[in-house]
Amino acid sequence: MTTHRISLTELERGTPFEYRHVGPDHEAQAKMLAHIGFGSLDELTATAVPDVIKSAEALGLPQARTEAEVLQELRGLADRNQVLASMIGLGYYGTFTPPVILRNVMENPAWYTAYTPYQPEISQGRLEALLNFQTMVAELTGLPTSGASLLDEGTAAAEAMALSRRVGKVKQGVFLVDADCLPQTIAVIETRAEPTGVEVVVADLSEGIPAEIAERGVFGVLLQYPGASGAVRDPRALIERAHELGAVVTVAADLLALTLLTSPGELGADIAVGTTQRFGVPMGFGGPHAGFMAVREPFARSLPGRLVGVSVDADGQKAYRLALQTREQHIRREKATSNICTAQVLLAVMAGMYAVYHGPEGLRTIARRTHRYAGILAEGLRAGGVELVHGAYFDTLTARVPGRAAEVVAAAREAGINLRQVDADLVGIACDETTGRAQLTGVWAAFGVQADIEKLDATTDETLPQSLLRTDDYLTHPVFHEHRSETAMLRYLRTLADKDYALDRGMIPLGSCTMKLNATTEMEPVTWPAFGQLHPFAPADQAQGYLTLIQELEERLATVTGYDKVSIQPNAGSQGELAGLLAVRAYHRANGDEQRTVCLIPSSAHGTNAASAVMAGMKVVVVKTGEDGEVDADDLHAKIEKHRDELAVLMVTYPSTHGVFEEHITQICAAVHDAGGQVYVDGANLNALVGLAEPGKFGGDVSHLNLHKTFCIPHGGGGPGVGPVAVRAHLAPYLPNHPLQPTAGPETGVGPISAAPWGSAGILPISWAYVRLMGGEGLKRATQVAVLSANYIAKRLEPHYPVLYTGPGGLVAHECIIDVRPLTKATGVSIDDVAKRLIDYGFHAPTMSFPVAGTLMIEPTESEDLAELDRFCDAMIAIRAEIEKVGTGEWDKDDNPLRNAPHTAGALGGEWSHPYSREEAVFPAGVVAAEKYWPPVRRIDGAFGDRNLVCSCPPLDAYDG
Q1: I want to staple 680 with a disulfide (CB 3.0 to 4.6 A). Which of 41, 246, 496, 651 is the partner?
Q2: Which part of the chain has CATH 3.90.1150.10?
Q3: What letter would DSSP give residue 542?
Q4: What is the pLDDT of residue 2?
Q5: In angstroms, rounded to a whole number, what is the distance separating the alpha carbons of residues 598 and 585?
Q6: Under 8 Å CB-to-CB from 156, ≥6 apart: which residues?
């Protein structure tokens, strides 16, 4: 008998990661291909993808490596980072993540693979965790309404500027920023202000608002509390004067300091913003972290981003949901004042749980310890003859050492400590939760001072002003008092996770959202200290591993997309949109074409497109969408001609928002270019293109990418995300840059889009690892299987539900839209009924009513295996049979399993009066009792939740005590 000899090299390679990432194996792929009438993946995509956009060459990426090899390579990169004790401050601080939160939230797929809680019945755990976060922020800031997190402190302050302009009494005037605000925040505000015509004035407000500025009119004021220099000042008089001028006052506050200091709300502020990073979230070289915004009651309905509120379910039981759930961008589009469509849910959950675990007493203890170290440090410096600029501070000192600042910073670095050099004379020093005695000794030595910690501890007084000490109670709800032991905390986190549906339970077939595998190998390096504990403003030579990883990822993303340059700074897809449009605007202005301000956007586009365009200083002109789902070519050409001299850019999603490969995309791009415009290809659907077509080569000038879609960063329950912007060479000079890290972007850039130089750098190892694990061929096959899976589902469901749009060969791209409207018209069964009934079958619903009302957009991705695809199709087919029973009158149109879905375990108890059985309710066809997912609540009343905007403490009766 002859045996095949396998070489040692082949054996060493092991199983390619591609086979772990792609769900259907070769046998399953063959079955799926046969079902839709194709013999191979190449044959399928050769038919589906128009010839005019196909890539001529394979992706020029390094060969795929094994999981062990990639982890070893990442270890090598991590080892090139030098993590010193960080005392730089400026909004980023060392913190200790409680291991119970690290392991059971940050590293737990039940939390990080979940989607945005738009299906609240199966998101009750996350929603409760976010309500904890909102309660924490609202009570610490002293303002009644807090959102469910924003992207970072800088963008939160920019959102506050826009909110102030929208709701304030003064409609003109300037936005006044105190010079002691964080420098990155000021820079982000200036980036955001200029395109919209807002004048930002930065001034020293320590003595009040200068008369010459007051005369010009002020619509908003931003203060930092404590200041970037560390100064703690009483802002009451300043806030009162600003209100006299009709201005809306925003205070950027440090939550840890607010455990000891009077809250912004009590001081008179209208808005509070900031970051929750120091509440247990690693610095991660700048992100991701959960920003926050809290507002006075009159501004609650204008709050950007998401807001968790309390509603009731069908039984009248309290239940959580996103209040005002339909995002502003989809209602107001070009009239929106914010393009925020995401949040930082995973990080907000961590920060909220940090407060739950420590409680108010624990937080105060951490704050007092931090302040105490700063006080002792200050007294030691003063005793050694070092002048301190401020006498009142919380955790940050500014020392004046004329001409010696660089020398002191260098000496501290030699001792393993990073300080901040403010200028030639000033040094900033920040204490935090991780500061220890060794750091104090090292700092004193760097200044040439010797001191006795024990002696100073016995003689140093508190330095916080008596008039600013906090006297009110906060975090009084039981949730902040009941989980002190690790056992209690562990069980609380498990209880919440069990209420939710995430990818660790089953398929989340959301169109446009690409809920695919977030592999453990990709996730593991994120929590390594060498990646997690680096300050974003640390010297570049201490971050060589990070900078190499970032450079390689940017280069490989450019290769994949056919563009010339990529910036990974934008920390959400919406921010990538804004960055790309700002680059286009800057390019036209550099060419003297300042009149080019018109942005053409198809009517089917995602709502953030229009909002981003307006924020970039552009005028939106809507282009019609045809009945086939494609851009209406006649209307497009008419609009191009009408606005030829003013045309700045066309924003188009490809494949289209309707899930098809439009055959005329190259002609569309050519027409726009002929008129002098640029083409923005929205990268939301890139999972259908990687390895098959490159936007930068078939007509695009700029795209944003969603690393939390195509490149495997997990959605985290609605964040974090990364939205890099990719451009052709002529737009590269106008990519984002950053004032505190010159290497983060071109000198001619548009300014920072995010607070951190490289955005959410802490999660970039995920996408770097994905590309490294898959290689060019693996990425291409992943795309091909994504297209195969979507077409397989479309083919299986087509006899039961109309598939709304198809492209070449009657095929869809990576997602398909099924039309429920005819069934609704015939039977009264709504799209909501179908979505909620899917919960009883053990599924998260597809995307509802986008981009077409009354439809479901289904995207299976390449990671779901054939068994799961079939389970979903079987459920949809069974639901179609249930709809038929309603249509024929076998089931009452108002009392049937669809209208009453989802069914909880509690609903089964007691008297059963429905005309269908308990078994039909909770164990429909294909549902195995032992594997049943039980939703914690019945259908939630959305209208009730919007009318009753409850958004602070969880109700007392939501807990068992």
Answers
A1: 651
A2: 7-81+777-895
A3: G
A4: 54
A5: 10
A6: 150, 273, 274, 275, 291, 292, 293
Give the CATH number of domain 7-81+777-895.
3.90.1150.10
- Closest by CA to 541, choosing from 82, 21, 860, 117, is 82
Which residue, among 766, 758, 291, has the nearest Cα to 527 in the 3D structure? 766
Is residue 385 packed enough to be buried (19+ CB in 10 Å), middle (13-18) or exposed (0-12)? exposed
Domain 104-355, CATH: 3.40.640.10
**Cα–Cα distance for residue pair 650/600, rounded to 1 Å:** 5
Q: What confidence tens digit (pLDDT) does each residue in 251-293 have? A: 999 999 999 999 999 999 999 999 999 999 999 999 999 999 9
Amino acid at 803: V
Residue range(s) in the chain whose domain bears CATH number 3.40.640.10: 104-355, 570-760
Tokens of 722: 């990364």
Instruction: Read off φ and ψ for residue 704, nearest 5 degrees.
Output: -105, 150
Q: What DSSP state is assigned to residue 398? A: E
Confidence class for position 4, pLDDT limits 50, 70, 90: low
CATH class of 570-760: alpha beta
Which helix (DSSP H) or strand (DSSP E) does residue 619 occupy?
strand 619-623
Distance of alpha carbon 830 from alpha carbon 835, whole angstroms = 9
> In the structure encoding, which two tokens stand for residue 582, read together?
């700002």
Task: Let me know how many helices (H) and strands (E) the chain has, helices first.
Answer: 32, 25
Rounded distance between C-alpha atoms, residue 790 and residue 812, angstroms = 7
Structure-token pair, residue 96: 């200790």
The CA distances from residue 119 to 53, 484, 500, 902, 955, in Å, are 37, 31, 10, 11, 21
- Segment 58-91, tens digit of pLDDT: 999 999 999 999 999 999 999 999 999 999 999 9
From CA 752, how far away is CA 736, in angstroms rounded?
5
Q: Band of the pLDDT at 951, cuts 50, 70, 90?
A: very low
Contact at 8 Å (CB) between 346 and 111?
Answer: yes
H or E, element range at 58? none
In this structure, the number of other CB atoms found within 10 A of the CB of residue 191 comes to 24
**Considering only CA atoms, which of 879, 802, 790 is closest in space to residue 842?**
879
The residues facing 649 across adjacent strands are 599, 678
CB atoms within 10 A of CB 422: 18
Tens digits of per-residue pLDDT, 701-726? 999 999 999 999 999 999 999 999 99
The C-alpha angle 779, 32, 924, rounded to 5 degrees, equals: 110
Tokens of residue 244, six digits: 């006299």
Give CA–CA dist 377/719, Å, rounded.
38
pLDDT(958) > 70: no
pLDDT, residue 794, reads 98
